Amino acid sequence: MDGRQMSEQQFDLILSGGDVIDGTNRPPVRADVGVLGDRIVAVGDLSAATAAVRRDVSGHIVAPGFIDSHTHDDTLLLRKREMAPKVSQGVTTVVTGNCGISLAPLNLQPGMAPPAPLTLLDTGGDYRFGSFGAYLDALRATPPAVNAACMVGHSTLRAAVMGDLDRGATSAEVAAMRALTEEAMRSGAIGLSTGTFYPTAAHASTDEIIEVCRPLTEHNGIYATHMRDEGDKIVEALEETFLIGRALDVPVVISHHKVMGANNFGRSTETLAIIEKAMAEQDVSLDAYPYIAGSTMLKKDRTLLAAKTVITWCKPFPELAGRDLDEVAKERGTTKWDIIESLQPAGAIYFMMDEADVQRILAFPQTMIGSDGLPHDERPHPRLWGTFPRVLGHYAQGQQLFPLETAVWKMTGLTAAKFGLADRGVVRAGAYADLVVFDPKEIADAATFDHPTEPARGIEVVFVNGTAVWDNNAPTGAFPGQVLHREAA
Ligand code: ZN
Ligand code: CU
What are the tens digits of pLDDT across the range 280-327? Predict the structure, then answer.
């Protein structure tokens, strides 16, 4: 028993009278939750116990803080440390460095500007780190409101090493990238991501990726990927992902799983069967966001697949943010194909998925929830502010896609297990006190495509490592976030 428990109060905080959804896919149980320091120390009837703060949360759900399995928050964690888009939804941990892009290490060759899609991370500013360790040190020195589990991005390594990215890497360049992967893993990265869909990595061969990723095997790293193709050639892309996982003997994460383009609608039946079969043979995870529209840089091939394209930001014409690409083209007396070039650099939202596929993928038992939010966009996709309450409110309780406890599990216990985040994602004695209290009748996403930065409804209070970070519908100004490490399964 440590000294603190000998003091007058048994707990720093008791959340009393709530219904606990513990993050293991079990239904809610009426229980009090006692917190001391950064840990949950008791779950049960604590009516006779004493606490510095006792908060009545009856009528509310007490759940583990949500883990956003797919983010691009690398820079936001330093620049806007209160992390309002995330803590307002109940998110207490973010996984960064997805889609092949991480903020570090970004030692660019002289005269080279960060290429798109690295620019999605707001690389234009003052945050430049020569090593992955330096980035993690900065997070520890000026901590954010949430915890961060950080991956290094393959496209970032290519930009740091290669100069011209429109080609495969030479063996010397592969060796240089491998050394940077090694440095990142030794410093505390949880793994590496690729984004072979993007021009920065489209020319990387399967062999290049395997060789750059070699250090993952020894350091127990995870491999996450925005695959080469999420449309017509998605099966080939899945096979490549599984092959890389087997060659390295590491877990793989299929990022933001979807099937794009009207001619592929319905094919999630096929892809999920393939994923399920692979899961029987190797460690495979997947995540998804709860929308039929995607968002990334403005690209011609994406526009081709989309029924509708909306501009999210545009460097040469900032006033176009929020505008429909077809309408802009019409006003200018031309077609969208002809103006895309003149709008660069730019970002867009693409309506290109089938609702039935989105629901089938969300309902697949092993699918984790990841927002893929783009925090620096002028008019961001609403997934940045709405993903988690949308799954809890709209998809679990509205569409009845799965019970509320399953929705919570997909954003807590499942994710913590897949990413190897020990003592996170569960409400039990001994776990870290990452907690969200929400009203199950109120919980809903408020961000829409027209009003994309509206905070969600129904989130009462959010704690990270025992400290409140969101309360009374606002950030508290506390920064208790930690850099998390991956532990072996
Ligand atoms: Zn992606
Ligand atoms: Cu992403």
Answer: 999 999 999 999 999 999 999 899 889 999 999 999 999 999 999 999
pLDDT tens, position by position, 173-211:
999 999 999 999 999 999 999 999 999 999 999 999 999
| Distance between Cα 70 and ligand 2 center (Å) | 6
Q: Looking at the CA of 72, which ligand is closest?
A: 2
Show the domains of the chain with their CATH numbers. Answer: 3-64+426-441+455-475 (2.30.40.10), 66-292+352-419 (3.20.20.140), 293-351 (3.30.1490.130)
Distance 71 CA to ligand 2 centre (A): 6
CA 226 to ligand 1 center in whole angstroms: 5
225: CA distance to ligand 2 center in Å?
9
Read off the tokens for 287: 């995540």
- Relative to the alpha carbon of 71, which ligand is closest? 2
> What's the first-to-final CA gap in the chain, in angstroms?
29
70 contact partners, CB below 8 Å, separation of at least 6: 95, 98, 224, 255, 256, 287, 289, 370, 371, 372
Residues 395 and 290: beta-carbon distance below 8 Å: yes
CA of 429 to the centre of ligand 2 (A): 34
CA of 72 to the centre of ligand 2 (A): 6
